[in-house]
Amino acid sequence: MLEQLLIFTRGGLILWTCNHFTNALKGSPIDTLIRSCLLEERSGAASFTYDAPGASYCLKWTFHNDLGLVFVAVYQRILHLLYVDDLLAAVKREFSGLYQPQKTEYRDFDEIFRQLQIEAEARAENLKKTNPLPAVAPQRKQQNGTWQGEGKNAGTEKKSDGDGDGKKGRRIENGGFVVAKNNSNANLKSSGNGSVNIGKENESANIGAFDVNRLQKLKGKGGNGNGNGKKKEAVVAAKAEPKKVVKKNRVWDDSPPQTKLDFTDHLDGEGDGDKKVDFLAKEQGESMMDKEEVLSSDSEVEDDDDDDTGKDSKPEAKKKGWFSSMFQSIAGKANLEKSDLEPALKALKDRLMTKNVAEEIAEKLCESVAASLEGKKLGSFTRISSTVHTAMEDALVRILTPRRSIDILRDVHTAKEQRKPYVVVFVGVNGVGKSTNLAKVAYWLLQHNTSVMMAACDTFRSGAVEQLRTHARRLQIPIFEKGYEKDPAVVAKEAIQEASRNGSDVVLVDTAGRMQDNEPLMRALSKLINLNNPDLVLFVGEALVGNDAVDQLSKFNQKLADLSTSPTPRLIDGILLTKFDTIDDKVGAALSMVYVSGAPVMFVGCGQSYTDLKKLNVKSIVKTLLK
């Protein structure tokens, strides 16, 4: 039976709840549904599962978009109630007739709901009786050269008389070949004498497998037939052999090289530390994190959709007059249906996928927008395509806008007052630029008079420590390292202790790149995070990826949750997108990553210099996605 049924407005005002349910809900399933599904543009899903200690609930919902109402039903997940969708539709239909914007209590709806529930349960029971679940047909058996079976086609099957002339029969003998109907469950063999033998029962698993005898015959023909096979193999081998290219050795003599080979900035031992930092700042310039990006005026987005229900928007439409009132009385009463929205949503989905948005994410977004618009009245002089475009734009802005503010500089000062370092851990897959962008973040923090220390916890990849050491020397900041083949979690812990002794404000922890399916390395990462409890876990990902972004982030979060020993595991807090300058308008990876993880994009890497680090401009991204 149902556990709860709730009706509330989009503003959060509860209008009616069922009072005859005696069991109180465990946890807060409806609050979690609103926070994790409805507000995150996932309302296009069929249901939502909420797991609480001692109970597991399934939630289903529907909207009345014209009135701004939400109907939510909660029931035990194990019950599999078949009448919930029907009941929600009936409740929506009846309650919308009683709804008044000024009214806040609907006690007279209790009796109506009881009647609707009884009718919905009765319809579900009748449906079970009239349409029972189909039984699984047993495997067909061969008896006397005929097909025997039960189920749907049992009455139409006829036995063959043995002369190979069965009409609609299970076999027709024709020179050793078989023309059979519904023969997917049999292994047919030709005897070569005009008759057909049907294979033994339970051999259906062999269908689609290679015929080994046939392959061996073909191999024999190719290898022994007049030497043709050997000749062909010799020709292929001759073509496959590449020509060997001999590398010319460099001749080293006493003459100076023609080109400059040493590009190192020799800063060691030249003046004091302030002059070194000033020299570096003068060479690199100000970080783009502190520069405000100026956007051009928003241009109108043209839509090529042919599906319109009204005329194009015109300035004259804003004027109130008898013509406007008459047209609004005609076009303004049309309620949007799902079939009306499908062409515009299909065009938007294709557009998002061309911008490198994962297909799964684009489909869920379109379903959510359709759920928010279905049943809504179309305004006068308004095209369906423009209405869908506006709804999608609002949805994208809500997704990309951070749910909580993460101000690193403010958090650093708060940790400094508590006399402890602010720890940031950089994680991600191989080759995305973790070490390079860690150095960019360090350069940005240095410009805000923050003392930074690097921790070389990538003890797996060859050359990782030397790479970080080079960045530390150029930035003139300390680095904590223990070499290779050490436990990264222990190295990070000792680095944090060293930063506390030296008075460093921030510790930037570099970790080894790892694929999301690498169990040993993911276990080591989980240990590092659980042991040191960092203030911020940044996932470094490429802006070039599309569908793979969903797999990377979801599996990273899943592994961190599964391998954690804490009841409240630490997951990814923020995202750093790299190589953003190489993608042109293919900015969909940012949307895919934020949608999957719920973590905001905190930094965007857009070049090779230390200054090439900036914030994500939400309006610019949304404009590019829908352009």
From TrEMBL:
SUPFAM superfamilies per the UniProt record, alphabetical: Domain of the SRP/SRP receptor G-proteins (SSF47364), P-loop containing nucleoside triphosphate hydrolases (SSF52540), SNARE-like (SSF64356)
CDD domains per the UniProt record, alphabetical: SR_alpha_SRX, SRalpha_C
Listed Gene3D superfamilies: 3.30.450.60, P-loop containing nucleotide triphosphate hydrolases, Signal recognition particle SRP54, nucleotide-binding domain
Keyword Endoplasmic reticulum part of the UniProt annotation: yes
Region (Disordered): 127-172, 219-317
Alphabetical keyword list: Endoplasmic reticulum, GTP-binding, Membrane, Nucleotide-binding, Receptor
Residue ranges, compositional bias (Basic and acidic residues): 155-172, 230-244, 262-294
UniProt subcellular location: Endoplasmic reticulum membrane
Ranges of residues in domain SRP54-type proteins GTP-binding: 600-613
Annotated PANTHER family: SIGNAL RECOGNITION PARTICLE RECEPTOR SUBUNIT ALPHA
Protein name in the entry: SRP54-type proteins GTP-binding domain-containing protein
Organism: Vigna mungo
